[in-house]
């Protein structure tokens, strides 16, 4: 069957990939902004115009359509004017490894479907666990930080029920902060915990968990007749990019004998940093850690993992099926420790990247993004039209357009409008969030090739857009006054 990849279609495979690679490379060479600026209505019309029930048009035509429909209007994270979310440009060897993954199509749920792939994933898990400081650690690759956090809290739940006499689901409490990822709240619901199971620990002025407040909160849980199931600390909060004081948090957890989970989805790049690794001091005392290689190791989505200090902890939620992974079988079946069954061999991308670049080079690239953010903080802080709102440990910049004389209400109203105008133009993509109850703009700088001048260009666009919106408001007011 020529439609399927096999020995008979190998030549056609080469032609298809060569044409596709050429077209994508052309996009990279010629793209001048992070998004085409096409309206949602236009894109919807393009999508709706495709007849998915019609006869096939052939592989060459279908792949040209992919280029014209998707690639032409994709969001390009490598462009220096993309500064919105936690998306990074991807390492070249990882992209090449993706092609191998797609063609071979292994599944790393059982050894007999992946063979050496299982062993390579386990080696990478051990390597990452070693970087964390888990000498006898274990783990598994996941689809992303949300799944990693869910599985960590599932294991913590089973551990709490097994070790705390009389504990029931309704009594279990998770302690986190308002800066913790929303997946903590969602996981609590999925795990059947009580509606009030997640208690928020007070934070300091930078949004970091206060260890003294955590100790008090843990005592209050016990006073209320509840059981602390886990504490979730964050190494790289989504908005501020700050790292909780992990060692002091671990002290409080050890004193209360409670599971510490560290969500390092954003901050895991510090594991290879030459200058900022100290920010993770204490992470080795956690029971579980989330890492997102597709945020900080320049990997294509998805490439993430959950790590545990004691490999046996993942067995708390193991399940065996006779047709897949029968109990007692002497094979390294990863489905034993994963929430997924069929699962891509995403570890191959990281393997290729580490072998091609080495961890020290990756660390230099991570450090470059942190240094860039520090430099941009200085630029914003010195700009009379912009207000810097919060420091960061990693690579975010929180700010707003608010020159002298512009009140808070009008500055608030500008945030969403500036972001929307820039997005609709496609010239620059910035994010927005809320800090201390007020909206603000956010830059997330995960491209080590981006320069301070590149970011100055984005800030100039923010300033010009905001000024134009204010000028439009003033003209409208003058027109209304004349009309009256």
TrEMBL record:
Keyword check for Lyase: yes
Gene3D superfamilies given in the database record: Aspartate Aminotransferase, domain 1, PLP-dependent transferases, Type I PLP-dependent aspartate aminotransferase-like (Major domain)
Any coiled-coil regions, as ranges: none
Pfam families in the cross-refs: Pyridoxal_deC (PF00282)
Keywords for this protein: Decarboxylase, Lyase, Pyridoxal phosphate
CC cofactor: pyridoxal 5'-phosphate
Protein family: Belongs to the group II decarboxylase family.
Protein name: Pyridoxal-dependent decarboxylase
């Amino acid at each position: 069957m020529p439609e399927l990849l096999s020995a008979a279609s190998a030549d056609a495979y080469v032609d298809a990939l060569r044409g596709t690679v050429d077209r994508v490379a052309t996009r990279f060479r010629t793209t001048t902004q992070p998004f085409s600026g096409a309206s949602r209505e236009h894109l919807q019309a393009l999508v709706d115009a495709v007849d998915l029930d019609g006869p096939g048009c052939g592989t060459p035509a279908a792949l040209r359509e992919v280029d014209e429909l998707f690639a032409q209007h994709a969001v390009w994270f490598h462009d220096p004017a993309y500064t919105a979310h936690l998306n990074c440009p991807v390492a070249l060897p990882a992209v090449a490894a993706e092609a191998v993954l797609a063609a071979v199509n292994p599944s790393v749920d059982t050894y007999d479907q992946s063979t050496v792939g299982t062993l390579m994933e386990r080696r990478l898990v051990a390597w990452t666990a070693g970087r964390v400081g888990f000498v006898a650690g274990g783990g598994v690759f996941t689809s992303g930080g949300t799944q990693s956090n869910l599985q960590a809290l599932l294991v913590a739940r089973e551990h709490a029920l097994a070790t705390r006499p009389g504990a029931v689901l309704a009594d279990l409490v998770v302690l986190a902060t308002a800066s913790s990822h929303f997946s903590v709240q969602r996981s609590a619901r999925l795990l059947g915990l009580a509606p009030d199971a997640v208690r928020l620990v007070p934070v300091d002025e930078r949004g970091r968990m206060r260890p003294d407040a955590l100790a008090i909160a843990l005592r209050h849980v016990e006073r209320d007749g509840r059981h602390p199931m886990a504490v979730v600390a964050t190494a790289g909060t989504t908005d501020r990019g700050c790292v909780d004081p992990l060692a002091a948090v671990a002290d409080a957890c050890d004193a209360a004998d409670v599971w510490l989970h560290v969500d390092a989805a954003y901050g895991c790049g510090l594991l290879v940093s030459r200058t900022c690794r100290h920010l993770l001091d204490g992470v080795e005392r956690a029971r579980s850690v989330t890492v997102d290689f597709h945020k900080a190791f320049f990997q294509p989505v998805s490439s993430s993992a959950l790590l545990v200090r004691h490999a046996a902890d993942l067995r708390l939620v193991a399940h065996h099926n006779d047709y897949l992974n029968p109990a007692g079988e002497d094979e390294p079946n990863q489905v034993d420790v994963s929430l997924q069954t069929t699962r891509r061999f995403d570890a191959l991308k990281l393997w290729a990247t580490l072998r091609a670049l080495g961890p020290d080079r990756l660390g230099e690239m991570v450090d470059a993004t942190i240094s860039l953010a520090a430099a941009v903080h200085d630029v914003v802080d010195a700009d009379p039209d912009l207000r810097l709102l919060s420091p960061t440990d990693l690579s975010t910049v929180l700010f707003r357009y608010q020159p002298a004389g512009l009140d808070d209400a009008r500055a608030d109203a500008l945030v969403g409008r500036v972001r929307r105008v820039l997005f609709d133009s496609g010239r620059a993509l910035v994010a927005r969030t809320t800090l201390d109850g007020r909206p603000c703009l956010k830059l997330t700088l995960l491209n080590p090739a981006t320069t301070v001048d590149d970011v100055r260009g984005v800030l100039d666009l923010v300033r010009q857009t905001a000024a134009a919106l204010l000028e439009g408001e003033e003209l409208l007011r003058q027109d209304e006054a004349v009309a009256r």
